[in-house]
Specification:
This protein has two domains: 2-319 and 398-489, ANL, N-terminal domain (Rossmann fold); 510-634, GMP Synthetase, Chain A, domain 3 (2-Layer Sandwich). It is built from 20 helices and 30 strands. The longest helix has 17 residues, at 98-114. The radius of gyration is 24 Å and the shape is globular. It starts with 8 loop residues before the first helix and ends with a helix. The structure holds 5'-O-[(S)-butoxy(hydroxy)phosphoryl]adenosine (WT7). 5'-O-[(S)-butoxy(hydroxy)phosphoryl]adenosine binds at residues 250, 296-297, 372-375, 397-402, 423, 485-487, 499, 502, 508, 513.
């Protein structure tokens, strides 16, 4: 069936029109022809954005690992599924075939089963980018356990709150991790977190750095001896299409992180179908996404999407600057990477380096370049296009979210003409709408508004773990019968979309989505702090950096402000993670507030970016006089 692989623009429009006119037939055809179902669905789609309730392929049964592994074994058993490129370039890369992946996933699944993990149980995975990370996800899916991957850069506190939110029974981690020239003591972070996690029965520990860690008796187990003793056969658990596959936490503008729940059937179909088209993946190609599996990009486009297509996917343990800024290009040359998918913040950091880091390597294998995570600025887009793509590899600027599960607005390479900074056109099945502030759909082109999606797609998150009310409130209450993304966007004269950025209190720093509330909560824990407010301001590599306005309890306090700054950043590092540290801290005696007591961040954002013109009407503030004081202090 041709729908699965779009090859020219006319075909895109045909497929797109069909996906809007007959969404159920469209998705049923994709699902039918390209996947292995143990039982066919009774109903393609039922939905109600008011409740909200969304079900795809209801009644169908499957196991996603059969689709990602077993069905490739007959023809591709000896093809490489995963290329593992270690942090240290002198350590040999590992090529894991589909057969080996099968065996290792089954062994891991058997170890987990043996330790009492059952269908529906939650397993927290806190690992660096080593093969065991991908294998752990798949092993959970094999036995129907719900994985909850926590990025291994998060602090003990952040880890513990995620483990407790979904009552995980097991944690899979490693003794430590390599990151450039540093080693990180992961296990002690886990130990710290687990002091307050009563539901965790076992911790499986991968030996990655050979460090002499403490193992808690009765709880902690070295993984390798258990794997060695485990069988390489594990029958897949048969799952319903709407059974949860995983939980992945994402920050919100308020309160604690949201455990987005993704289910099995629709997620599989959508990530596989988008992977095939957005990267124009052909058998034999080598695909590399530089994200960490701790984020949705890694779940969907390092693990599930590529493997469902029988692809070869690269997993890189290290960082772009180690041993030097040529590392990415060295890896592209070494593994002859055909599709390369990275983030604007990485592109900007690489673009600042001497061009010889790039010119030393042969990048002629590249066919498609991807970008994701935040708006890509014009300069970075051109640098990527000129130097990496050399004007022959199209750039796919892919817009999507943890909540959407898969890529939503994107060019299809060699099909959609690209335009710098534009994510261009909706993927088949995606129906965007731009809304004005009073809730009306904005029609026509050359307009801007708040980006919503008006019809469900197969990989939309179905709920927030344990808090359906918050799911409804966050995504389905701003506009009637619409999924609200939290982003602003504009639509140009030909219908291309450009995502302009968040319209809520989420700030994207180096591609990481950070909510202001948890950071402010951490700052406010400091005994000297009365109140604080965080805003983003432009940064040439990170995209945005964090600026904190901090009000102290005693004004004019004689404490050493540099010490205070360090203490505040240390608190943020402990409570949230190093990524959320503030670049600038301004101590102030007042924060601008509305009469209802809400901090006016709009004004603080302008001051932080040194844009003092047009501060808007400040007369409605409770304390308008503080604005000029804050401006003066900032200079
Ligand atoms: C937010 C979602 C989806 C994987 C990584 C981030 C921003 C993402 C783009 C893009 C402009 C983008 C949006 C979105 N974003 N991709 N191509 N152009 N903005 O997932 O952490 O859930 O963040 O990232 O603001 O809402 P996430």
């Amino acid at each position: 069936m041709s729908n699965y692989h779009i090859k020219h623009l006319e075909e895109y429009y045909q497929v797109y029109r069909k996906s809007v006119r007959e969404p159920e037939n469209f998705w049923a055809e994709v699902a039918e022809e390209h996947f292995m179902w143990r039982k066919r669905w009774d109903n393609v789609l039922s939905w109600d954005f008011k409740k909200p309730e969304i079900k795809w392929f209801e009644g169908a049964q499957l196991n996603i690992t059969e689709n990602c592994i077993d069905r490739h074994l007959r023809t591709k058993g000896d093809h490489t599924a995963i290329i593992f490129e270690p942090n240290n370039p002198d350590e040999t890369a590992e090529h894991i075939t589909y057969q080996q992946l099968h065996d290792r996933v089954c062994q891991m699944a058997n170890v987990m089963k043996d330790k009492g993990v059952k269908k529906g149980d939650r397993v927290c995975i806190y690992l660096p980018m080593i093969p065991e990370l991908a294998i752990s996800l798949l092993a959970c899916a094999r036995i129907g356990a719900i994985h909850s991957v926590v990025f291994a850069g998060f602090s003990s506190k952040a880890l513990a709150s995620r483990i407790n939110d979904s009552a995980c029974k097991m944690v899979i981690t490693s003794d430590g991790s390599y990151r450039g020239s540093k080693t990180i003591d992961l296990k002690s972070i886990v130990d710290g977190g687990l002091e307050s996690c009563p539901t965790v029965e076992n911790v499986l520990v991968v030996n990655r750095i050979n460090s002499d860690i403490t193992m808690k008796e009765g709880r902690d187990l070295w993984l390798q001896p258990l794997l060695d003793a485990a069988s390489a056969v594990c029958e897949p658990e048969i799952m319903n299409a709407e059974d949860p596959l995983f939980i992945l936490y994402t920050s919100g503008s308020t309160g604690k992180p949201k455990g987005m729940v993704h289910t099995t059937g629709g997620y599989m179909v959508y990530t596989a179908y988008t992977f095939k088209n957005v990267f124009q993946y052909k058998d034999g190609d080598v695909y590399w996404c530089t994200a960490d599996i701790g984020w949705i990009t890694g779940h969907s486009y390092i693990v599930y999407g590529p493997l469902a297509n029988g692809a070869t996917t690269v997993m890189f343990e290290g960082v772009p600057q180690y041993p030097d800024f040529g590392r990415f290009w060295q890896i592209v040359e070494k593994h002859k990477v055909n599709q390369f998918y990275t983030a604007p913040t990485a592109i900007r950091a690489l673009a600042k380096q001497n061009i010889s880091f790039l010119e030393n390597y042969d990048l002629s294998s590249l066919k498609v370049l991807g970008s994701v995570g935040e708006p890509i600025n014009e300069e970075a887009w051109h640098w990527y296009n000129d130097n990496v793509g050399k004007h022959k590899s199209p750039i796919v600027d892919t817009w999507w979210q943890t909540e959407t599960g898969g890529i939503m607005i994107t060019p299809i390479p060699y099909v959609t003409p690209t335009k710098p900074t534009y994510a261009t056109l909706p993927f088949p099945g995606i129906q965007p709408a731009l809304m004005d502030e009073s809730g009306n759909v904005i029609k026509g082109n050359q307009v801007d508004g708040r980006l919503c999606i008006k019809f469900p797609w197969p990989s939309i998150a179905r709920t927030i773990w344990g808090n359906h009310e918050r799911y409804k409130e966050t995504y389905f209450s701003a506009y009637e019968n619409m999924y609200f993304t939290g982003d602003g966007a504009l639509r140009d004269e030909v219908g291309y979309y450009r995502i302009t950025g968040r319209v809520d209190d989420v700030i994207i720093v180096s591609g990481h989505n950070l909510g202001t509330a948890p950071i402010e909560d951490a700052i406010n824990e400091h005994p000297a702090v009365a109140e604080s407010a965080i805003v983003g301001f432009p940064h040439d590599v990170k995209g945005n950096a964090l600026y904190g306005y901090v009000m102290l309890k005693e004004t004019g306090e004689s404490r050493d402000q540099n010490n205070l700054r360090n203490e505040i950043n240390q608190l943020i590092k402990d409570r949230v993670g190093a990524i959320a540290k503030l670049d600038k801290i301004q101590f102030t005696d007042g924060l601008p507030k509305t009469r209802s007591g809400k901090i006016m961040r709009r004004i603080l954002r302008k001051i932080a970016s040194k844009d003092f013109s047009n501060l808007g009407d400040t007369s409605t503030l409770l304390n308008p006089e503080c604005v000029q004081v804050i401006i003066d202090e900032s200079l």
